[in-house]
Amino acid sequence: MYLYRDATEFAAAEPPVAEPGTASLPALILKAYEDAASGGVLVIGTDRRILSRNRRFLDMWRLPEASAAEGAFWALLSGMGGLVSDPAVVLDRLRDPRAFCDEAGRLDGQVFRLIDGRTLEIAGRSLCGTADEAIGWVWYFRELEREARLAAALRKASASERKAIRNEARLRDAIETIPGGFVLFDAEERFVVCNEAYRAMWPGAAHLLVPGTPFVEILHGLWDAGFRGGPSNREDWIADRLERFRNPGGAYEQRRSNGGWLLVDERITAEGGVAGIRVDITDLKRREAQLQALNDALAQREAQLRHLCGNIPGIVLQMRVQVDGSVAVPFISDHVEDLCGLSPAAVMADPMRLFRAIHREDRQALTAASRTASREAAPWRSSFRVVHAESGAVTWLRGGFVPTPSPDGSILWDGVMVDVTLLKAHEEELSRAIDRAELANRAKTEFLANMSHELRTPLNAIIGFSEIMLSELFGPLGQQRYVDYARDMHASGQHLLAIINALLDVAKIEAGQMELDERAMSVRALVEDCLPFVREKATERGIELAVAVPDDLPRLSLDPVRMRQVLLNVLSNAVKFTEPGGTIAVAADRTAGGGLALRVADTGIGMTAEEVAVALQPFRQVDRALSRRYEGTGLGLPLAQRLAELHGGRLEIDSVPGEGTRVTILIPPERVLG
Hints:
alpha+beta, Beta-Lactamase, phosphoprotein, five-stranded antiparallel beta sheet, 5 domains
């Protein structure tokens, strides 16, 4: 909406939406001004917005500009009401014009008096002809005494004089509609005329603005009134203003003593006088200062960002990818010059220079990954090489990009790419070290497997011969001591054979050579097969064995030998680490997932979580004191765990020091036969 301007500007304005078949709103307002002659005009929309008014209206009511702003209708009524002897005459019409108009939308004139004694008349009409179709209302105000004086002067004057008076009245109205202060001096530098806006700019000095007053006298009055922006002494200030006045060189800004700013434009007239326009630009200067402060803050933030990014050993950048695939780089950190040999300005001017810095072997994979991420608008990470444009040095970068989609379909990517050249070198060395370790581990496994076979042959002979001696197959040994020696030889051989067998099993599992001989068997049979091997030792130590295995549990598809080995190792550990008088409970039940759980719980010494991790490693034992309380090679639990994993299951160990340990052998559902 074009408000508070010369009405002729409405002819060129874009018309707002109007009712079909009616003239545009700007055209209607222009017509209202033409009808008003030299009176005051106020145009109000049906929504009580002030659409327009002329300077004469404000002068007539002695009102400031702000009181007739677009949204100030009720404030305007309040201001007018305080100036009228009988406010209802005026205010009721402005509030509800339909109640006072005829069917054609006309409101007859109504005379009223202001509290300062002047007599005014208010009349009006709708903007589009009828009250029902009104899109607004135009009000005309006439100052009767003024018009009476003008009429009397016109009656006395000749036709030419009447024309001059009319022209002068029109000129004054035109001057009043100028946006800003207007002043005119003649060729003798004497004051001729100004508008009310100019007069309001010099409170305390307005009495000097009378026709015929010399410009220099007005300047002295302004200095005395305190309007002293510029040079600090009277003579210099007046000399400066006279120089500018007599030799106008175009518009310039003038600082006022109250801190405000004026835009001054003075020009020589055809008659040698000076016409000047002054526009208050205080708000504009304040906005400029705010904008400059904002720009300074942004520049400081960018400097801080570049400093921060300069401490990151890599490249920080923003990259915008448009819908058509074109790429722009709004920001990139200075490290791009160290790593790629490209200045930030060069990359922002031509983003393809950064792409060309990527190693040829990495471009295709990087392009494919970025396109996939763009389609899905998802974050992505990558590692690639860049080649320095000057030195040819190759640097590994690793980083990621986070997308921010825009309404226009483009995507802004925020990325950080860190120099990982040294890390890549360490990773490659670590990979080679792992390969060497795996090779050494395979050699160790093969050595253990071979040595286990080599040791079993003489051990079998030792065990066999000791059994013959114990059975005295070829006659009595004679001395009891020889019998005891033969018994010790046989027990030691059996123990060493068990160790070698365990070593061989571990070696086979690690080499991937262990194969299962699967058969159907019941859980109860599995438990009953293992209990005799530990019952005697448990009885010797006063340990109670409690078994709770239901008969209705389904059969399992297992390797009987290997699963007995698992359960027997667990039971042997429970007997070994349970103090005399303790209890070992064996139980079995179905799991929620359809598998089966075989549990062995003891009241032994227990372990911490760290000790459990140690116990599951081959050749490691929790008790590492020189005088070890418990014998063993440290292969029982690790071997049991690996054999359970070969069946697709696992071992779970829950233990509390001083309270005991519960080992759960979990059998997967696919090994349950129904």
